[in-house]
Amino acid sequence: MPENRKSVEETHSSTRGVMSLSESRRRVEASLGRRNRQEQRFRLYGIGAVILGISFLGFLLITIVGNGYSAFWQTYIQLEITFDESVIDPDGSRDPQILSSANYGRLIRDALLETFPEASGRRERRALKAIVSTGAVYELRDLVMAEPKLVGSTRALWLLADDEVDMLIKGQVDRTVEQGLRRLKDNQITWVSQLQASGHIKKRFNTGFFTSGDSREPELAGIWGATKGSFFMLFVTLLLSFPLGVAAAVYLEEFAPRNRWIDIIEVNINNLAAVPSIIFGLLGLAFFINFVGLPRSAPLVGGLVLTLMTLPVIIIASRAAIKSVPPSIREAALGVGASQVQVVIHHVLPLAMPGMLTGAIIGMARALGESAPLLMIGMVAFIVEVPGTPVDPSTALPIQVYLWADSPERAFVERTSAAIMVLLLFLLMMNVTAVWLRNKFERRW
Amino acid sequence: MLTMGISEQQPDLQTAQSTPEASRPKTAKRKSIDLQEQADLGGQTIGDITAVDPVMSVRNCNVFYGDNHALQDVSLEIGRSEVVALIGPSGCGKSTFLRCLNRMNDTVESARVTGEFSLYGEDIYAKNSDVVLLRARVGMVFQKPNPFPKSIYENVAYGPRIHGLAASRAEMDDIVYGSLERAGLLEEVKDRLDDRGTSLSGGQQQRLCIARTIAVNPEVILMDEPCSALDPIATAKIEDLIDELSQNYAIVIVTHSMHQAARVSKRTAYFHLGRVLEVDATDKIFTNPSHRLTEDYVTGRFG
Q1: What is the separation of C-alpha A220 from the centre of its chain, rounded to a whole number of angstroms?
Q2: Closest Cβ opposite residue A336 in set B109, B158, B198
Q3: What is the rounded average pLDDT for all residues in chain A?
């Protein structure tokens, strides 16, 4: 017989705190009004925060896109170019060396003078020549090199206009400013207006922006060099940081003993994720470039520095993914006689992989947008050639944005915004991939 | 030491459980020992801890979780082809003892296990003994069915694959199909062996886990409350299965249900607060328990 329990009457005898049903109901109803108002207010705060965030984002995007979209169109001038044999190849030998070093600028100048014969004097002629881009001579040269039988013929060609003319056509030049304070002089403006009136000016899609490297001339400048440099860097970073990060996380979670040393390591890893990135740049400069002797400005060094930066992020994300694998799966695997390594490789890693991949992609997205550590290792130099291998000097997309933002030419303003748009597009694609991966694997078990 | 003949008859459960007062033998004749007397006896277990043909033997097992002395001086033997049930109130150490038998407590950081454990005479806690091999010989079925998130075929094939039991795909097929058949699951899943293991019902998942365990050809099967998460029909199926399996394997089953212990097991050990109070033939434990606490437990007075 259980002697130590109260009898039923004893437990129910107290009437303390008991009120009638109608009274308690009245009190609850009275408080409802206040509680509903609180709830409404709280909801409004939430909505307000979201709207504020979205409007900042919207403002940012509208500004950038508004500034940058015009960079995707480039002004071209149509001229009748006579491929005068006496200028290009007087001997008629069609020797490639002679063809490549011919004075194509002369052909352009002659074509312009034909259109505007009133230009007289050195200064005026120089101003006339300046409305066509300096890169147009290379266009002509490439045409002749590809098709030597062009020599002697006359063609109507669309040549790249100078960046100032481009700005004029896009309406960016303020004509009311005094002539001495502008780059584009009155006579140049007159000529361009005449060309425009006669239909010799056209805007085409700016494919050069995506295929050429950096340049002092805005109309010739492109992001391909920076993009390739960024890709090389990301490739090196992914190759190094993902295996190292996953291996470190697996060791710390599965095999490491729980003692003070491991705790210290954990704390340090968590702190490294928050260290300012420029410090990694200093470390890269001191160790990789000065001590090891790797080439400066190379995406390889950039990749190594970014590896150091991304490693803590990947380790933390991987550890969280490994921790989320239910212990019942581990026990089941141990129960059939799997060794600890087999449990990790056959069961834990496949189940944790989605979380690890998401962490890796987020880490990569962060690395793509980093510029401070790369400044330290020299990727801020002006490099024209598109890098062929990860050890060629190059720059990166965020750095390219910084360099162009620093340039005085008006045309670089729109190109800076266009480069930012391309960078944001890459980041968006990477983050969307991460979210898609996470959603796809979330329903697995 | 009392010598016992192992009774082949199942105890008459109806009278034992439904009318405890009537079935309890007269107080005067029964030798009822209570806790104080047990302490005077030196904490010795009542009944015979030995088995007729021992497969596993445990002497003086003590388990500490940090400072918590979870198991105190537990000794027990598991015989070939017999089912031993471990019963007792929650937290008395049954699962801890079970996990000692295949060294699953190694995975718990704070656990410290002392005592002599032997499987066919070999010390399983020896420094150079392979825990992986041990777990292939002593399999475990867990409380909540935990099939791998792989196909049904892969679930059963995983163990044999890592131990290298099959030389070819045909042999692996034999092992998988045979295990599923002996687990009573083949009929239900033979058309969908590529479906995920987790797409089965609870009872089927548990039978899959049993198939997975017997696929590596163990000698002992440990079951930690295998039916506690299942409905009565699935439970009945698994109990029938345990009966069949006991012809080939030694089985140790932890259960909260006295009915289950009475139905499936030959011997029963009653655990209380980390000690084994009484070990005996199942029908004796349930109809004529010697210890007062055992009697209180099996008649449902507490626990």
Answers
A1: 20
A2: B158
A3: 88
Task: Decide if pLDDT at A260 tops 60.
Answer: yes
Residue B127: CB atoms within 10 A of its CB come to 5
Contact B146 A329 (CB under 8 A): yes
Chain A residues whose CB is inside 8 A of the B158 CB are 333, 336, 338, 346
What's the CA gap between B62 and B43, in Å, rounded?
Answer: 14
The DSSP call for residue A391 is T
Tokens of A224: 């391909």
Per-residue pLDDT tens, chain B, 303 aa: give them.
343 443 434 444 444 444 444 444 444 434 445 555 555 555 677 788 888 888 999 999 999 998 899 999 999 999 988 999 999 888 888 999 999 999 999 888 889 999 999 999 889 998 888 999 999 999 999 999 999 999 999 999 999 999 999 899 999 999 999 999 988 889 999 899 999 888 999 899 999 999 999 999 999 999 999 988 888 888 888 898 998 898 989 999 999 888 888 888 999 999 888 888 889 888 888 888 888 888 888 887 654
Cβ contact A175:A189 at 8 Å? yes
How many residue contacts between A and B have a Cβ separation below 8 Å?
Answer: 65
Cα A166 to Cα A202: distance, rounded to the nearest angstrom: 10
**Domain extent at residue B69:** 41-147+218-298
Query: Which amino acid is present at A253?
Result: E
Q: What percent of chain A clears pLDDT 70, i.e. is strictly above it?
A: 96
Complex prediction ipTM: 0.82
User: To 5 degrees, how large is the angle CA B255–CA B261–CA B264?
Assistant: 120
Task: Please report the residues numbered 269 through 298 in chain A whose beta carbons come closer than 8 angstroms to any beta carbon of chain B.
Answer: none
Q: Quick check: is B19 in a domain? A: no
Tell how strand B275-281 and strand B267-272 pair up.
antiparallel
Give the C-alpha separation, A96 to A102, whole Å. Answer: 10
Nearest to B139 among A336, A338, A346 (CB): A336
Answer yes or no: is B207 within a domain.
Answer: no
A259 touches chain B (CB under 8 A): no
pTM of the model as a whole: 0.77
Contacts with A328 from chain B: Cβ below 8 Å: 142, 144, 146
Q: Inter-chain contact B209–A332, Cβ cutoff 8 Å?
A: yes
- Asked if residue B206 belongs to a domain, the reply is no
Q: All domains of chain A, ordered by start, with CATH? A: 72-206 (no CATH), 224-442 (1.10.3720.10)
Residue type, A27: R
- From residue B30, alpha-carbon distances to A55, B110, B222, B290 in Å are 85, 42, 33, 7
Contacts of A342 in chain B (CB under 8 A): 162
Q: Hey, is the C-beta of B161 within 8 angstroms of any chain A C-beta?
A: no
Q: From CA A169, how far away is CA B148, in angstroms rounded?
A: 67
What would the DSSP string read from start to end of A406-444?
Answer: H---THHHHHHHHHHHHHHHHHHHHHHHHHHHHHHHHT-
All residues of chain B having their beta carbon less than 8 Å from the beta carbon of residue A338 are 132, 158-159, 162
CATH code at position B118: 3.40.50.300
Q: End-to-end alpha-carbon separation of chain B, Å?
A: 29
Q: Is residue B16 part of a domain?
A: no
**Cα–Cα dist B154/B149, whole Å:** 9
Q: Does B159 touch chain A (CB under 8 A)?
A: yes
Cβ pair B187, B164 in contact under 8 A: no
A348 contact residues in B (CB cutoff 8 A):
none
Q: Does the pLDDT of residue A59 top 70, yes or no?
A: yes
Domain count, chain B: 1
How far apart (Å, rounded) are the C-alpha atoms in residues B137 and B119? 9
Q: Which candidate in B132, B138, B163, B301 is best for mutational testing of the A interface (most A CBs within 10 A)?
A: B132
